[in-house]
TrEMBL record:
Keywords: ATP-binding, Cell membrane, Membrane, Nucleotide-binding, Sulfate transport, Translocase, Transport. SMART domains: AAA. One of its GO terms (cellular component) is ATP-binding cassette (ABC) transporter complex. InterPro entries: AAA+_ATPase, ABC_SmlMolc_Importer, ABC_transporter-like_ATP-bd, ABC_transporter-like_CS, Mo/tungstate-bd_C_term_dom, P-loop_NTPase, Sulph_transpt1, TOBE-like. Pfam families: ABC_tran (PF00005), TOBE_3 (PF12857). GO terms for molecular function: ABC-type sulfate transporter activity; ATP binding; ATP hydrolysis activity. PANTHER family: SPERMIDINE/PUTRESCINE IMPORT ATP-BINDING PROTEIN POTA (PTHR42781), SPERMIDINE_PUTRESCINE IMPORT ATP-BINDING PROTEIN POTA (PTHR42781:SF4). This is TOBE-like domain-containing protein. Residues 5-235 form the ABC transporter domain.
Length: 324
């Protein structure tokens, strides 16, 4: 696979603060890559640098093999969607989506066909005549995607596009984005601080922290083989066991003491649908931890608060430095 976007040696300072700290990063053609990290880690700065809306102090950026470092956004052949999409309020859905094609002076017939096709793709066929105020938040973001895709950009850049929507709509839209990407195949970079969104949607995830990229890999790579404690903790729940980080679903509970197990008191049993979370207090006085077990296992164990149970890890990822 060739790389659609390359970034090398990108740094960006705001005073003493490093928003980007010598970032090297590539985005393979046709991939859906998520930039994932906590607030302030530099995700938006990196995305905006690809778009040409921000300019790193140092470094080079190429898109489709062309050096775009000094090229303005409108000449980079990109589509961009923000969290709060600025729709033209006085224009219909059709006119909003057609906007980029109109300013490129494409023939009317071509514009109509393209807009109809895109509205079909984003599930807004029949909404052509509506105005942005007559759409739900999720529909507005889908219109924004149609508008960004209208000019056939080489790259689609999405900055928390579903961030302002409620949880259920977000979930629907992310599976919709996944399917859209399978059909349209445009190289996409998605900024999100939501690990579940990244794991669900992206085929590649770059985890950012303090202006640096900590690890790049497939969702499985990152979840199962995190490069360090930061990535492990950021990508899912963790429990600390003898100073080592483990996933709560890699903990087993038994009624009998086994060679590698330790005794703990059951503090709380929470039934969360398919899973059961058991909050435990080790008798050794070590930090409390939670185990995630199945409903079936919980039924067999029949745990109650205050009882003693024996805990062991079935798997501990090998990560270089556990957090202190
Ligand atoms: N114009 C600016 N002036 C000063 N500091 C800035 C400016 N733009 C961004 N920053 C700082 O750079 C850091 C990185 O910002 P950025 O928006 O890239 O982070 P992010 O990972 O996208 O976070 P968020 O999810 O909160 O947007 C933040 O600490 C931010 O305060």
């Amino acid at each position: 696979m060739t790389d659609m976007i390359t970034i090398s040696g990108a740094s960006k300072h705001y005073g003493d603060f490093k928003a980007l700290d010598d970032v090297d990063f590539t985005v393979p053609s046709g991939s859906l890559t998520a930039l994932l990290g906590p607030s302030g880690s530099g995700k938006s700065t990196l995305l905006r640098s690809i778009a040409g809306l921000d300019h790193p102090d140092t470094g080079e950026i190429t898109i489709a093999g062309v050096d775009v470092t000094g090229v303005p956004p409108q000449q980079r052949d990109i589509g961009f969607v923000f969290q709060h999409y600025a729709a033209f309020k006085h224009m219909s859905v059709r006119e909003n989506v057609a906007f980029g094609l109109k300013i490129r002076k494409r023939p009317k017939k071509e514009i109509k066909a393209k807009v109809d096709e895109l509205l079909e793709v984003v599930g807004l066929a029949g909404f052509q005549g509506r105005y942005p105020a007559q759409l739900s938040g999720g529909q507005r973001q889908r219109m924004a995607l149609a508008r960004a895709l209208a000019v056939d950009p080489q790259v689609l850049l999405l900055d928390e596009p579903f961030g302002a929507l409620d949880a259920k709509v977000r979930e629907d839209l992310r599976s919709w984005l996944r399917r859209l990407h399978e059909n349209v195949h445009v190289t996409t970079v998605l900024v999100t601080h939501d690990q579940e969104e990244a794991l669900d949607v992206a085929d590649r995830i770059a985890v950012m922290n303090k202006g640096r990229i900590e690890q790049v890999g497939s969702p499985d790579d990152l979840y199962d083989r995190p490069a360090n404690a930061f990535v492990m903790s950021f990508l899912g729940p963790v429990a600390k066991l003898n100073g080592q980080l483990v996933r709560p679903h890699d903990l087993r509970l038994d009624r009998q003491q086994l060679p590698a197990s330790f005794a703990a008191t059951v503090e709380r049993v929470a039934h969360l649908g398919f899973e059961v979370r058991v909050e435990l207090r080790p008798k050794s006085g070590a930090e409390g931890l939670s185990a995630q077990i199945t409903r079936g296992d919980a039924k067999v164990l029949d745990l109650h608060e205050g009882e003693t149970v024996y805990v062991r890890a079935t798997r501990t990822p090998e990560i270089p430095a556990p957090v202190g």
